[in-house]
Amino acid sequence: MANLNLVQAINLALIQEMERDERVLLLGEDVGINGGVFRVTEGLQARFGARRVVDTPLAESGIIGTSIGLAMGGLRPVPEIQFEGFLGPAYDQICSHAARMRTRTRSAFTVPLTIRVPVGGGIHAPELHSDSPEAIYAHQPGIKVVMPSSPYDAKGLLISAIRDPDPVIYFEPKRIYRAFREEVPEDEYTIPIGKARLVCEGTDLTIVSWGSSVIQCMQAIEKSNRSIELIDLRTIYPMDIDAVTESVRKTGRCVVVHEAPRTCGLGAEVAATIMEHCFLHLEAPVQRVSGFDTIMPYYKLELSYMPDASRIGGAIEDALTF
Amino acid sequence: MCVRALNAPRYTSVMPIQTVFKAEIERISILDEHCQFDEKLGAGLIPDEDLVRLYEAMSSCRYLDEVAFKLQRSGRMGTYPQNMGQEATSLGAAYALRGDDWLVTCYRENCGLFWRGVPMESILLHWMGDERGNAMPAAHYATPIAVPIGTQMLHATGLAWASKYRGESRIACTFFGDGASSEGDFHEAANFAANLDIPVVFCCQSNSWAISVPQRIQCSAPTVAQRGIAYGMPCMQVDGNDIFACVYAVKNAAARARESSRPTFIEMVTYRLGDHTTADDARRYRDQAEVDLWKLRDPLLRTRKLLEAKRLWDSSKEDAMRQRIEVTVNAAVARAEEIAAPPTSDVFDHTFAQLPPDLVRQRDSLQTHSLAGEQAVHTEGH
Hints:
A: Rossmann fold, globular
């Protein structure tokens, strides 16, 4: 057992999977000697060699497209896209090929691929380095999308993603890369894809969130004197509908919190799912606390854009007093 | 002072501009449209008995094209892209490659795929709107037909990389058009292969037209081949209607890939004799005179002439072959048409290795016409 931050937990998971399975290789921009711009792959090239930790040309579509070929060829590539804003050039390969290869070939070809992508705002990064595009990829059939909110989950989810027989986008909330540490077992364990985590139990209201927003939700709960249940989805797609609906049937009220813009954000999906499954249990409309339908601002204003404990607290009050 | 002296400008009258790099593009032609045969390059390249088989393969592919066109026009098949005129390119590659080298094609490489053993009914089934046509058996080392233009070359690079990673001698050969060479993924695939030493053979089917857009809009350089120069890879142009030239170029490129893990770029100059697909009408944008000129350069025509000159072929053999081909193709059509539509559950069952619970629910809703579980929720609620 070691006390690790999220970066270290991911690094440990990569080491253990690479040691366990020769088919696992890492590729991307600066993942080699530089250890990635966030140092997530620090020391891995020295440990496993340039054959298994590969610095590629600067081309996101190339990174994902060749990774698809590597996966079709029987390997387990773990490409890194440096920031979520750079996923755009790779969108075609992800959605036109990685997502479709299994269905297009009736499973003759599969793409066991884990795309690691730092995600979200809150680190004073330049333009196009702070977006939250998880709903875009959750909307694309054929891809799984996960986003841990703690070092413990980060390790277990990454191991599941690498071992998954289908493409997984593994979003790493950069705001909490080094925000806190927790005990992360050295021993091998997995967090199943598609299973949410009950962060804390409560009876008055359910908060559903994921990624770094989970931390803001915990702060809001600490400030509240009500009994609030917090669910961290951990997996964006396939969403753990049972965990959400079970909780909302119990509490009758729900607030969904995410950094991404509101329109067609995953909050809309969560709200619709609750309406379909828990309509007669609801005491108030589902509240959404999210980013806005604007371009993510430059960093001077980013904290105003991102949900914080105060905005979450307001939504909690709205739901409780409806 | 010494430092100052070093930094002081020195004026000279002569500072010639140097040439740091020069390049030439070779064009390879072994059997030309006038049936002239280069004995030096062509010697021993394709044994006679193989040439007969290659001619039959091209003829058979051509006949399938004719039948497929009629199937589409009579409503028995969806949109279909004819291969007519381009048979020699992929066939030459498939013949030159090892049977277990990856063949990563787009959708005008039927001839090479059939040579590999991909059944005709698979291709028909695919264009009949059935994914099972793309379920390429592992033994053929052929990737599925790729409709997204100019994207599959990256997969070839990845597949060849996977082989290299495992220490295998298998390489990859990929096909795309001159239009696709405008796509960014072409550049990225070539750049990755060249810079990471990945054994790929890039074959550009330079067929003059990307639907209605002429090659001049894709590439204003004298050749598409010279694009390879920018990646530091050997590149050349071949007569793509010359089965010998295609075999020659791919054979050499494959040897280079296997021996030194270096990629090659081959521009195969050919011509799309048919429309882009059955949904297209090429008369809208190109002259018949141009088509007629290219009909004289047909790869089948010159191969047959050579066979006849070698006394390996005559009209009775042609008639007998035609009968064989008709039987084969018609049987493939019959088999493809006999395959019933898959169950609706097939829409779901290949989305993931294991279906998530909500997809199971959606799949079942196709049978019950309501979202299962919904009723239970309502009952419980009341």
